[in-house]
Design a protein that fits this description.
Layout lengths: L9 E5 L3 H13 L3 E5 L2 H11 L3 E5 L7 H10 L8 E5 L4 H9 L4 E4 L4 H37 L7 H15 L4 H13 L9 H4 L7 H7 L2 H9 L9 H6 L20 H16 L10 H13 L5 H14 L4
Parallel strand pairs: 1-2, 1-3, 3-4, 4-5
Helix pairs in contact: 2-3, 6-7, 6-12, 7-12, 12-13, 13-14
Length: 325
């Protein structure tokens, strides 16, 4: 979850037992934490949206929405997926512990809770969240830089956002897991970050690039990879950034990779990147219709550039959403 920097961490306590809630609130206030309270899981989600806490302590058994489902919803939402959650409960059967871990729970605390144990867990998770927030801030700066590049050229404005969104839609249709979808989201946004190192005269040229200009332009995947390699949190998207201009027949750049050397997530971004370029107006062409775009994509599949199975899924999805089938 992303929030404005605060010197005092805020803890959300979700517990329908008022005595237990009050005891924990008193302890945390005495230790200098800010506290927000909720009586059940549904109210907890509302308080999270309002107050952007740094950590949640959630009771397992609550009315309306129990702790397990509350945790699952917190971890399942993009804006709160990194928000630490401690589940407070009696002894959990092994199968319930597995379900809690699958829901994304960061730690367990038995009832009645030990004060020192609670404080140690909270401080440890807050330290981790602080580091995570710093990584998120760095990623946000890169996202802003991407939009700055696009803002220089009205024809590419919004391209990264669309490639990111399309990549997630296509990835979901292809059965990608949550981690892969997150890589597609970030990779789609940052695939062209290397254009930061390309002169504006080339990026904004209204006509076709000459050979020397193309040589410079083709460096942007490598430049982008070098920029993002410094953030360990972006390791998973480096193949997308470096290889989003590779073709299955080995004619792409920068490394001339072929077929199985090109990962699935890269192939997905290949397709939606080209799709958006074709359906958008550029300085050198008008926007293609959806029908013309897919005719072009299938011609390029025949040439050996793109993965036909992925193009087929994307075509079916786009035409269904557009009412063309």
């Amino acid at each position: 979850m992303h929030s404005t920097r605060r010197t005092i961490a805020t803890i959300l306590i979700a517990d329908d037992d008022r005595y237990s809630q009050r005891a924990m609130e008193t302890l945390l206030l005495a230790e200098g934490f800010g506290v927000v309270t909720a009586q059940d899981g549904q109210e907890a989600l509302e308080r999270i949206a309002e107050s952007c806490p740094d950590l949640c302590v959630v009771d397992f058994d609550m009315p309306r929405l129990n702790g397990l489902e509350t945790c699952r919803r917190i971890k399942g939402h993009h804006d709160t997926r990194l928000l630490p959650v401690i589940l407070v409960t009696g002894l959990l059967p092994e199968d319930e512990k597995v379900r809690a871990i699958e829901a994304g729970c960061d730690d367990f605390l038995p009832k009645p809770f030990d004060q020192d144990a609670l404080l140690k867990r909270i401080r440890s998770l807050i330290r981790i969240k602080t580091l995570t927030d710093e990584l998120e801030d760095a990623e946000d700066i890169l996202m802003t830089l991407v939009r700055t590049i696009e803002a220089k050229d009205r024809y590419t404005l919004g391209h990264a956002d669309r490639v990111s969104r399309y990549g997630v839609l296509l990835g979901r249709a292809l059965g990608c897991n949550a981690f892969e979808l997150e890589m597609l989201r970030k990779g789609g946004m940052l695939h062209d970050i290397g254009k930061l190192g390309i002169p504006d005269a080339i990026l904004q040229k209204s006509g076709p690039l000459d050979d020397s200009e193309w040589e410079v332009m083709r460096k942007h995947p490598v430049i982008g990879c070098d920029i993002c390699r410094r953030l360990k949190s972006l390791d998973g998207i480096l193949p997308i950034i470096r290889h989003h201009h590779e073709c299955l027949d080995g004619t792409g750049y920068p490394d001339g990779r072929k077929a199985d050397e090109i990962p699935k997530l890269v192939r997905i971004v290949n397709v939606v990147d080209i799709y958006d370029a074709l359906t958008s107006r550029r300085s050198y062409k008008e926007a293609y219709s959806i029908q013309k775009t897919f005719r072009t994509l299938w011609d390029e599949v025949e040439r050996g550039w793109w993965d036909g199975d992925i193009v087929k899924v994307w075509e079916d999805l786009v035409k269904r959403e557009s009412g063309l089938v």
